[in-house]
Amino acid sequence: MPFEFATANRILFGPGTLQQVGALAKPLGNCALVITGQNAARAEPLLAQLKAAGVATVPFRVGNEPATLHVRAGIEQLREELCDLVVAFGGGSVIDAAKAIAGIAAQPGELLDYLEVVGRGQPLANPSLPVIAIPTTAGTGAEVTRNAVLASPMHRVKASVRSPHLLPRIALVDPELTLHLPPALTASTGMDALTQLIEPYVCPRANPMTDALCVEGIARVARSLRRAFEHGADKPAREDMALASLFGGLALANAGLGAVHGFAAPIGGMFPAPHGAVCAVLLPGVMAANVRALRERGTGHPALRRYEEVARLLTGRPQATAEDGATWTAELCRALEVQPLRSWGLAEPDVPAVVAKATQASSMKANPIALTEAELSRVLVEAL
Q1: Options 3.10.180.10, 3.30.70.1150, 1.20.1090.10, 3.40.630.30; which CATH number does 182-383 get?
Q2: Is the backbone of residue 6 left (phi > 0), alpha (psi -120 to 50) or beta?
Q3: Cβ neighbours of residue 211 under 8 Å, at least 6 residues apart?
Q4: Is 297 helix (H, G, I), strand (E, B) or coil?
Q5: What distances in angstroms separate CA 93 from CA 11, 135, 379, one per listed residue?
Q6: In which residue ranges of the chain is CATH 3.40.50.1970 found?
Q7: Fold for the domain defined by 10-177
Q8: Are 337 and 187 within 8 A, CB to CB?
Q9: Which residues pair with 159 in a beta bridge?
Q10: Interatomic CA distance for residues 174 and 189, integer angstroms
Q11: CA dist 232 to 114, 248, 252, Å?
Q12: pLDDT tens digits for 243-265?
């Protein structure tokens, strides 16, 4: 079967790999825009290493979910300071902002020329400035994906800049950077990682390379997410989750996603809900809805067999059914104290608007079976 597989130019994984960042950065640029989240102090060891390697640094912070205003401000600062390299140190929000800033700064025109949905969606003509992506959470896999998801507050929606040019030059994944993640963030990012392993595995664009990554990643989440949540200093569990997150990013970038992410984009644009938290609460319901629909009108569909394999990987039981996978995931969400959608302000009157937007999302097109509006609405109502 023909397929393509693309990722970051170079991936470095393992405890302590952050120590290599100075030597890695020096050949790529002389002045780095260093993008962090709210807690910029965590990046001090990174800044010290860049300084020791002779790379000047310009700090730039991104709070919460990245928005179009962050990208515009980052591009302005990058150009004013003559930065020729971007280093992202944070979660998926930070890395997506970094990819967008580095990519758009190298193009003519402005952000809306290249942003999908609310902009003109033009392809990026020029290579991005080099990006070193260093994740400090284990969930999004953004360090190896070719898109950057941005909130547009004016339109109350999230949209992507998408191009192979956005793939980071270097993805540096050091599991030790996740040792101090609080339990709630461990849970939401970990469930995001699980979602990004299950959805590519059951989607129609799956290929042998993404299958191998998904199977290995799902098994690692099944044995380690609860351990990382309950015992944050458990290094083997943190390493499992960091690797699972990386595998999920590789898989989604080269296969596709599904209804969970189809919902996540409009919900994240309409409500102050973190992406991982949305994926966490929706995953069990979407799995159950897909399995029901496949049994009702997808007889013999290969995705049903894949959901059975997912269930075996999650439960460890050779005889597990597809439904058992959804049940196991729901039980995990309860153990991880995942919050319902209503905690982010979503109420039942909002359901029709969210469903209408979700049906138009690009991720929804890769769902293994087309879900009806009634089925999609049921998923949302049950997650409130």
Answers
A1: 1.20.1090.10
A2: beta
A3: 201
A4: helix
A5: 19, 10, 26
A6: 10-177
A7: Rossmann fold (3.40.50)
A8: yes
A9: 150
A10: 16
A11: 40, 21, 27
A12: 999 999 999 999 999 999 999 98
Residue 39: count other Cβ atoms within 10 Å of its Cβ: 10
Which amino acid, 203? C
* Helices 351-358 & 373-383 angle (0-180, nearest 10): 130
**What backbone torsions phi and psi does residue 2 show, to the nearest 5 degrees?**
-75, 140
**Cα 124 to Cα 226: distance, rounded to the nearest angstrom:** 40
Q: Check if the beta carbon of residue 173 is closer than 8 Å to that of residue 126.
A: no
Give the tokens for residue 193. Answer: 């990682």
In 3D space, the residue among 191, 177, 77, 184 whose CA is nearest the CA of residue 133 turns out to be 177
With the C-alpha atoms ordered 265, 267, 269, 275, is the resulting torsion angle positive or negative? negative
Residue span(s) of the chain under CATH 1.20.1090.10 come to 182-383
Q: Read off the tokens for 139.
A: 């969930």
pLDDT in tens, 84-110: 999 999 999 999 999 999 999 999 999
d(CA 119, CA 108): 15
Enter the pTM of the model. Answer: 0.96
- Neighbouring CB atoms inside 10 A of 236's CB total 12
Number of separate helices (H) and strands (E) present in the chain: 13, 8
206: left (phi over 0), alpha (psi -120 to 50) or beta: beta
CA distance 288 to 133: 35
